[in-house]
Design brief:
The chain has two helices and 19 strands. The chain has helices at residues 2-15, 182-186, and strands at 25-26, 33-46, 58-73, 76-91, 96-114, 117-127, 132-133, 141-143, 149-159, 165-178, 196-197, 203-205, 210-225, 230-241, 250-260, 265-275, 282-283, 292-293, 299-311. The radius of gyration is 22 Å and the shape is flat.
């Protein structure tokens, strides 16, 4: 319960900023289409020559992209959000090690019910682009495109207190988890049902690459560009499956902060926190060097960088 409180309180602390913002980019003559986005590229490099203490030559590349496209005319609205993150360490002989990989897309259609409330239909897709490994083991992938992949679709209501902040309440939602890799599916990774075996070790029923979970979904989303050069994007997603207790929540909190130093140079910070009841994390709890399966745990990933940026 403490973990869930941290997610929720942290988001509302982030959005308590003065809304002295710049306007969105107008894309159509009648102002029905508007956009707001940023693409950043951070680069780092380390080189060694006859260095007695040792070290690896490496190039560090990390890119983060956030983009929002909105349509609003009469009682109808349509919002699309895209988030891309990819990072890699490149060593001698072009040996690479992935450091970041996120592919998120969300689309929301609304029909106005009152000045600040919409009836809404929501659809989202989350996955990654490339294979991921638990380094130093780089021969057995633990993730790849569509392994896992998550689709969430639901009907509900959208509260819009201003143009930058929205709260989606979807009591009728379905979450689809896909693990499109036979080996990971057979391991029961990401909550997928494992195959069943008889006493002779023969498969009675194969693993299921798909997992459907009807439930309820809440999402808070904030995205704003400020006059002082600060750009902030933050979202919190809460999902509760009807087959579980109401407080057994899957939580996803993603935040991105960018500060403009010059016309093309920006400092960036991103933080991703995940708590998923279906993902068991292996950790060494007693110091014996062996990792035990202890169930779901808080997953955290953050990056800080200085590099080039393009505001869209």
């Amino acid at each position: 319960m403490k973990i869930k409180c941290i997610f929720i309180i942290g988001f509302f602390l982030l959005v308590e900023l003065p809304l002295t913002a710049q306007t969105e980019r107008i894309l159509s003559p009648d102002s029905t289409w508007k956009s707001l986005g940023i693409i950043t590229l951070n680069v780092g490099q380390t080189s060694f020559t006859n260095w007695a203490a040792g070290g690896d030559n490496q190039l560090n590349l990390n890119s983060i992209s956030h983009f929002r496209l909105r349509y609003n005319k009469g009682k109808r609205s349509w919002e699309n959000l895209i988030e891309l993150k990819f990072g890699s360490l490149i060593f001698d002989n072009f040996v690479t090690k992935k450091t970041d990989d996120i592919l998120n897309f969300a689309s929301k259609f609304g029909f106005k019910a009152s000045p600040k409330w919409n009836y809404s239909y929501y659809l989202s897709f989350n996955s990654q682009l490339a294979r991921g490994y638990n380094y130093p083991n780089d021969s057995v992938p633990v993730s790849m495109f569509m392994a896992p992949g998550y689709f969430i679709a639901g009907l509900g209501f959208d509260y819009l207190p201003n143009s930058s902040l929205s709260f989606l309440f979807s009591p009728i939602t379905n979450k689809l988890t896909i693990v499109n890799d036979p080996r990971l599916a057979d391991l029961g990774s990401y909550g997928i049902e494992k195959p069943s075996y008889n006493s002779a070790g023969q498969i009675i029923s194969p693993s299921n690459k798909f997992k459907n979970e009807p439930g309820a979904f809440i999402k808070a989303n904030y995205q704003q560009e400020f006059k002082n050069g600060l750009t902030l994007s933050s979202k919190v997603e809460l999902f509760s499956a009807f087959s579980q207790k109401p407080l057994k929540l899957d939580i996803n909190w993603s935040s991105f902060v960018s500060y403009k130093i010059s016309r093309i140079v920006r400092a960036t910070f991103s933080l991703d926190l995940i708590y998923d009841e279906d993902i068991s994390i292996l950790v060494d709890t007693n110091g014996d060097g062996l990792k035990e399966n202890v169930g779901p745990r808080l997953q955290a990933k953050q990056s800080l960088g200085l590099g080039l940026a393009l505001v869209l």
